[in-house]
Design a protein that fits this description.
With 193 residues, the chain is mainly alpha-helical. The protein contains seven helices and no strands. The N and C termini lie far apart (90 Å). The model is unreliable at 5-11 and 180-193 (pLDDT under 50).
């Protein structure tokens, strides 16, 4: 490290310490008054504390040549501009948030949980082969022929399991929309195959 770089490092360390000492003195001597000022701007204690903290960081992050009196005035200006900028940002967000977010009245996941439980209960009412065929058809999106190959069954047998399974699911869940044109070839009444 060169002598110039070392001198700058010592100078920055000394300036940093003076800045830290001044910040501690400002907080100790004028913290209550600055907190009250922040409260007047924000209207609540939590936001006032955040505003004062932000202003302290913005003011003392870089070493400045301030004394106690000028530091307080500078902090007050920083608080006002920070608060106004925050209000502007919130107002801007209010104008555009509907473009980016969902409705805040999120009811939670109760509806999804109930639907999942209904589907689970309906699937529990199927035989193992019917259930396997239905899951492979509607979850894995396999064709009747692909299901037959995977399970080692005839295409007609898979169609019968699917037809019976979908009919039983419809009894519990209501009408089920068929995803593919070949779904209509299911045996719907258990009659001729």
């Amino acid at each position: 490290m060169s002598a110039t770089a070392a001198d700058e490092g010592v100078h920055m360390d000394g300036a940093r310490r003076r800045s830290d000492d001044l910040m501690a003195e400002v907080v100790r001597e004028r913290g209550s008054a600055l907190g009250a000022y922040a409260y007047l701007l924000t209207g609540n204690t939590r936001d006032a504390e955040d505003l004062l903290q932000d202003a302290l960081v913005k003011t003392f992050v870089r070493a400045r040549s301030l004394d106690l009196t000028s530091a307080e005035g500078y902090l007050r200006r920083v608080m006002v501009t920070t608060w106004i900028d925050g209000v502007r940002r919130r107002n801007q967000w209010q104008r555009v948030r509907h473009l980016l977010t969902r409705d805040e009245r999120d009811e939670g996941h109760a509806e999804q949980v109930a639907a999942r439980q209904d589907v689970q209960a309906a699937l529990d009412g199927l035989s193992r082969r019917q259930r396997a065929c239905v899951v492979l058809r509607f979850w894995d999106d396999l064709t009747v022929h692909e299901i037959a190959d995977r399970l080692g069954l005839a295409d007609g047998t898979v169609k019968r399991y699917l037809s019976t399974g979908v009919a039983r699911l419809s009894e519990v869940l209501g009408p089920i929309a068929l995803a593919r044109p070949d779904d209509v070839s299911f045996v719907l009444d258990g009659g001729a195959r």
